[in-house]
């Protein structure tokens, strides 16, 4: 499939197959969650890890939902995987379409550039949070990592820059570490 076709799949799924939730309610609920994590852990590195862990658990489950809503098959290569993440995954759940840019020469790394992150609405980080490296939307990294692991791809996913840190756009870097072997569970014939 081409990038244009993936975009159409994502738009159709958003229009027809997704129950909508009030965006402001979702954004404020997420913000409350992050505030509670900051209070509980009092360490931004630990908060980043918890957001990633939560996102990972979401991503492991969301991939089945995306495939069921869209009828897409497993991607043929990492380039098509990037397009599906951008044009289908983000579109279906957040109604945004990050651009895929900055491919590495070996084709195993790319960036998702998010111009308008809905989680950033109504949010301003205190200077200490920025200085100490809180990635407010780190849940996205976990979601991507969890979903890709279910598709047999071990990845590293991390924020490079964020609007809440003063950048003009937010950038998430996705690196393919290795393709995992599909394992048959013990005693499964």
Automatic annotation (TrEMBL):
Its main location: endoplasmic reticulum. It is found in: Endoplasmic reticulum; Golgi apparatus, cis-Golgi network. The keyword Endoplasmic reticulum applies. The keyword Ligase does not apply. Gene3D superfamilies: Trafficking protein particle complex subunit 3. One of its GO terms (cellular component) is Golgi apparatus. Keywords: Endoplasmic reticulum, ER-Golgi transport, Golgi apparatus, Transport. One of its GO terms (biological process) is Golgi vesicle transport. PANTHER family: TRAFFICKING PROTEIN PARTICLE COMPLEX SUBUNIT 3 (PTHR13048). Belongs to the TRAPP small subunits family. BET3 subfamily. This is Trafficking protein particle complex subunit BET3. It comes from Coemansia spiralis.
